[in-house]
Every structure is written in structure tokens, then in C-alpha cells.
Amino acid sequence: MTDREKINRILDKQSDRVVREIYVFVAAYTGETEQDNERED
Asked: How many CB atoms lie within 10 A of CB 23?
């Protein structure tokens, strides 16, 4: 595994967690979880 692959893997894990936190916050704020879930799939 190259350094770039390691960095990308770390960034992917961090961004996934951040995106999930933001998504949960926005979903809770807007109350449109069902519609958003269909779109994100």
C-alpha cells in the first residue's frame, strides 16, 4: 500500500464520519430523513 493509499483511506474514514454527523444533524433539523435516505441510496 502506498502512502497515498494510506492517506486516502484515513481521509475516507474521517470524511465518512463527518458526513454522517452532518447528515444526521441536517436530517434531525429538517425532519426529512425518509426522502433523503432514498436519494442517498
From this structure: 14
- The number of beta carbons lying within 10 Å of the beta carbon of residue 27 is 16
13 HSE (CA, 13 A, CB side): 5
Packing angle between helix 33-40 and helix 3-30, nearest 10 degrees?
150
Q: What is the pLDDT of residue 33?
A: 52
Domain ranges of the chain: 3-33
Name the DSSP class of 1. Answer: -
Q: What is the pLDDT of residues 13-36, one digit of tens each?
A: 888 888 888 888 888 888 765 555
